[in-house]
Amino acid sequence: AEVDNNAVNRVEMSQAKANGFDFNVKAARAGIMAGQKTIELPDVNFDAIHKMRTKAVTRTDSQILPGYEGLEMLAIKPPTTLDYLQSRPTTQNAITFRRQTTKLDDAAPRAEGTSLPVTSFAASRITVPVEAIGHLFDVTVEEMEDDPGMQMLLAQAAQDVWRELNEQVVIGSGTAPALTGIVNSSGIQTEAYATSRAMSIKNGITSLKTTERATPGLLLMDPADFDLVIGDLIASPSFAINYIQNGIQARLWGLPVVEEEDIVAGYAYVYDPSLAYVAYRTGMVLEQTQSDGSKFAELVATYRAYIRAAYVMRRLNVRKVDITA
């Protein structure tokens, strides 16, 4: 927050520098609790923070950078494509909508007394089914009651469902009961390899903007391919400025990079998540039953985790890029 372009409640810089980073982090927390709207942390060496994020528990004091003694970097789940998509509820077992087949790109200035330009709009009626994704497993009552750690099974079961939904959204074949994923979008165009992997991706970003008239917001590629791209950038310092790895989310040409291991090697996808969403008929459901006669007698419980969802693409929003050198 600013007043007349001056930061509100500015921390005294000279005193803050003398206090050290850990002290200032604690002061920032106290300031936030007290209602401060702006907190400054002077002399923050983010490169040092990046190097520390994987520090060993058995580290020695000599391995701790001065001023960072109290800083603990927590593990962060790598982002998935689902994390960037809008979600909407539905009460239907299928989603029927109009998918644009033309772009609204004829807007132009008009002189007073003249008509606005007319943009031709065309769309196709599309229906995508809501599909159930899930699994079930058996666990004895003794296993669940005697080992508290077994409760983690439920979290793992739910996580596996989310993982499969993400996979379906990315690479689903469209053959029932699979969803039609991003890489199998109808009408998708391929950008040819040119000069280097990084430049090919840059060309794909440009094509998605100029040809599909979409707004690039995400890059999807196989982890091994992304490693090759990083290698190219390291070998070419002039490109390195376009790659940022801050320990949380890697970026290339300004776009977040999501590494999806199910994408076919040799290709990257430039994607606009604003033109698609996931519709949920049922959110994550975790259920347990012992109603089966034999399992009831044997003290065996059956657990199931599932979700019902559909992937909806309102307009073509992806460009395939050949990055095979």
Per the principal axes of the C-alpha atoms, what is the gross shape?
A: globular
First-residue to last-residue Cα separation: 48 Å
Strand content: 25-35%
Structural class: alpha+beta
Question: What is the helix/strand order?
Answer: EEHHHEEEEHHEHEHHEEEEEHEE
Helix count from the secondary structure assignment: 9
Task: Tell me the total number of β-strands.
Answer: 15
- Average pLDDT reading: 80
What order do the strands of the largest sheet run in, or round the barrel if closed? 7-15-12-8-11-10-9
How would a crystallographer describe the biggest sheet?
Answer: 7 strands, mixed
List unreliable stretches of 5+ residues.
1-18, 48-69
The level of helicity is 25-40%
Radius of gyration (CA) equals: 26 Å
Description of the structure:
This protein has 9 helices and 15 strands. The chain has 325 residues and is α+β, with helices and mostly antiparallel strands. Strand 10 (250-252) and strand 11 form a beta hairpin. The chain is globular. The protein starts with a strand and ends with a strand. Residues 1-18 and 48-69 have low confidence and may be disordered.
